[in-house]
Design brief:
The chain is mainly α. It has a domain of about 140 residues: Cytochrome Bc1 Complex, Chain D, domain 2. The protein is built from 8 helices and 5 strands. A 3-stranded mixed sheet has the order 1-2-3. α3 crosses α8 and α7 crosses α8. About 20% of the residues are buried.
């Protein structure tokens, strides 16, 4: 009798793990919650909401990550991206092994630049590109290259006090970088170089050129001082 009850209980436990459909998984799979997640599928029905729709309208104030559109107006510290402007024109040549970098920022980048400031005023052209570039530079570049661009950012400075000998980031005022074509500087921001990672995922095309414009302005500001050291 006890044996029969034990077998019945075991069968009940095994049966409770069955979901009524065939599966190619092993007979015993621990933690099946990753296989059958408690979530809604796209366009599915939900009894939780009054209209039974699982796909909800985003809450008011939600910032779009990839809005697209041909007339993007960035707000201060916004993160929106214009997917219609992906022709970055980094090179002028077509030789894959020896590209010729464009020497200056494309004119269309400057003409498209438009920034709405916190006080509600709007600026455009190179002024907007420089201000946007300063914002992005302060966020993504300052930790390593510093606000002055001398390569003595907080990441490198703190590494000097520990066992990890972190190499000093490039000084943006070095003669080599001063004479670097704008397209090459853009490519470095997008793809990275040596220990520096690429920032293509964080910075859309227009923002990469904005950082290039600000780096050039930073170099000009330090030119009479022989560069920040």
């Amino acid at each position: 009798m006890i044996r029969a009850l034990s077998i019945t209980a075991l069968l009940a436990v095994v049966a409770s793990g069955c979901r009524g459909q065939t599966s190619e998984d092993p007979p015993i799979t621990p933690l099946r919650n990753m296989h059958f997640q408690q979530r809604y599928n796209t366009q599915s029905e939900s009894p939780f909401f009054a209209d039974h729709r699982t796909m909800r309208t985003p809450p008011t104030g939600t910032v779009p990550r990839f809005p697209g559109g041909g007339d993007v107006r960035y707000h201060d510290f916004g993160v929106a991206r214009d997917e219609t402007f992906e022709n970055d024109r980094v090179t002028l040549g077509h030789e894959e092994d020896s590209p010729t970098y464009t020497s200056t920022i494309p004119l269309e980048v400057v003409t498209r630049a438009n920034l709405r400031k916190q006080d509600g005023t709007e600026i455009s052209g190179m002024a907007a590109l420089l201000e946007r570039g300063q914002q992005r530079y302060n966020i993504y570049c300052t930790p390593c290259h510093s606000a002055l661009g001398d390569g003595r950012g907080v990441v490198w400075s703190r590494a000097q006090n520990g066992a990890y000998n972190y190499p000093q980031p490039a000084n943006l005022h070095d003669d080599r970088i001063r004479h670097m074509p704008d397209g090459q500087l853009y490519a470095t921001i997008a793809n990275g170089v040596r220990n520096m990672p690429g920032y293509a995922a964080q910075l859309p095309v227009q923002d990469r050129w904005a950082v290039v414009a600000y780096v050039r302005a930073l170099q000009v500001s330090q030119a009479n001082n022989g560069g920040a050291r």
